[in-house]
Amino acid sequence: MKFPKEMRTYCPSCRKHTVHKVHRESKGTARSQSWGQRQYKRVVSGYGGQPRPKQKSFAKVTKKANLVLECTECGKKQVRTGPRTKKMSIE
Ligand SMILES: [Zn+2]
C-alpha cells in the first residue's frame, strides 16, 4: 500500500489540524532485557530446547506498521498505528 509523505491531521500540542510529515518508526535495538526474556533465554539455552511449542497459526495475516507523524508547525512528533497491510511504502 502506498502512503502519502504528508498528511493533514490533528496535532495535540497545536490543538488543531496541521500538515504532518509521515515517517516510519524504526524498530531500534533492545538494550536491557526484561525478566521474562532473560528467563526464556536461560530455559532455551543448552539441551532441551523450547519449553513449549512456538505458535504457528495466527488469526491475522498482516501487522500494523507504526507511523511517526511530525508536525510542520511546532515540530512535535507523535506515533500512531498505521493500516493493516502486507507491504507499505511512503511516497
Ligand atoms: Zn503542532
TrEMBL record:
Cofactors named for this entry: Zn(2+)
Q: Name one GO cellular component term.
A: ribosome
User: Keywords in UniProt for this one?
Assistant: Metal-binding, Ribonucleoprotein, Ribosomal protein, RNA-binding, rRNA-binding, Zinc, Zinc-finger
Sorted alphabetically, which Pfam families does this protein's record hold? Ribosomal_L44
Q: Name one GO biological process term.
A: translation
Q: Which residues bind Zn(2+)?
A: 11, 14, 71, 74
InterPro entries, A to Z: Ribosomal_eL44, Ribosomal_LSU_eL42, Ribosomal_zn-bd
Keyword Isomerase (UniProt): no
Cofactor binding: number and manner: Binds 1 zinc ion per subunit.
Supply one GO molecular-function term: structural constituent of ribosome
Zinc fingers (C4-type) span which residues? Answer: 11-74
Would I find Metal-binding among this entry's keywords?
Answer: yes
Give the family this protein belongs to, as stated in its UniProt record: Belongs to the eukaryotic ribosomal protein eL42 family.
Q: What assembly does the database describe for this protein?
A: Part of the 50S ribosomal subunit.
Report the function annotation for this chain.
Answer: Binds to the 23S rRNA.
Q: What is this protein called?
A: Large ribosomal subunit protein eL42
